[in-house]
Write a structure and sequence with these properties.
1 helix, single chain, SH3 type barrels, 3-stranded antiparallel sheet
Length: 87
Amino acid sequence: MEYNYSDLKKKSVINIEDGKDLGKITDLVINFPEGNLKGIIVPGKKNALFSGGQLIIGVKCIERIGNDAILVRLIERKEKIEDNDFE
């Protein structure tokens, strides 16, 4: 299926892991000269997963593009902190 940028930028980007609305697409990442889509860029909203700025979501994270929304799967990485990390 083919989409153009003007259609994509109207859709909300939703993380299906936690149901959060990440905003609407502000830009695309395209590989030149091949022209392959590498990812989408959404504004980073302040919450537990993102601290602000822009969030780049790779194409592999996109699960589905629907009529109203783009569903992505982003998993928060929690690093294990060892007691000796503070010594």
